[in-house]
Task: structure prediction
Amino acid sequence: MITTHCTSTQSQTAVFARDVLNGLKQFPKRLPSKYFYDTKGDELFQQIMHMPEYYLMNSELEIFQSQKQDILATIGHTHFDLIELGAGDGYKTKVLLEYFLQEKIHFTYEPIDISANVLEQLEKSLHQRWPSLNVAIQPGDYFKMLHKLSKESARPKLVLFLGANIGNYTPQEARVFLRSIFDELNPGDYLLLGVDLKKDPKVILDAYNDPAGITAAFNLNLLSRINRELGANFEKAQFKHWETYNPVTGATKSYIVSTCDQHVFINALNRSFHFSAWEAMEVELSQKYDLQEINSLAAEAGFIVKKHFTDQQECFVDSLWQKPV
Ligand SMILES: C[S@@+](CC[C@H](N)C(=O)[O-])C[C@H]1O[C@@H](n2cnc3c(N)ncnc32)[C@H](O)[C@@H]1O
Result:
């Protein structure tokens, strides 16, 4: 057991090192946002979700609270596997879980997340709240785990991809991503996709640029993770968080900017990297869409749009798609 764990930790570190190297070799330099979520990152993201400026959380929560009946009625199944990609702490999903239990739906909840830590906490909280809920946590990468689950059972599936996680991909990458989900599903299966909508640019920027600096701490925590896990010597105080929103393309981008000319050594790569003063690294994309663009994404991936569920202020949409029967 111990050997297996060590080997898998070593290989995860090797993959992390490879991804960091690939990102830092590019121009502009970039770091993959999926590595934000270590234990500290999970904690900071939970704080972000409850910030007043982070409207995404309340908008999606409102959709589930006020339209859960309609969501379930549109799906129409009473037996299914409920698979969630990037479940996190499952805060909003719990509204759906509670309703499905109340309606005596037969389902197993299978949350997938790259952070085993966040899944263990989620499993514990679910067992405490609903001891009878069937839960099978799936630590790992989205597609590896989705592929495994789709081979394991032929039951109808409802896949959740919430919280605007799809926005972390460029529209081009999102098309490939959504097509890969389509390929893992059987005809009649559903995808409920949470997407952040284009809106007042100030509202968007404020959500990623909070005055308390929680988003900045979350982004800069990635440097601490590289220091700890890859033996690097990033001086966090010499980098700052910067956010932009382009209302034409809908791209919201987080950068980490070097405030001086400096070198950083990464032991696991046995290599040093030069940062010029004010050189920016891209760390996260949060792409915004309008409903027409979402309809196109669905059609290009092969799905039928069953219904768009939006909040009252039309900040956010949970769009229910089906693989044609
Ligand atoms: C922005 S949080 C959203 C959590 C939740 N879906 C919500 O709406 O509140 C993204 C979650 O996806 C997970 N994640 C990111 N990239 C992943 C990947 N490639 N495979 C599996 N999980 C991933 C992270 O660990 C994190 O818990």
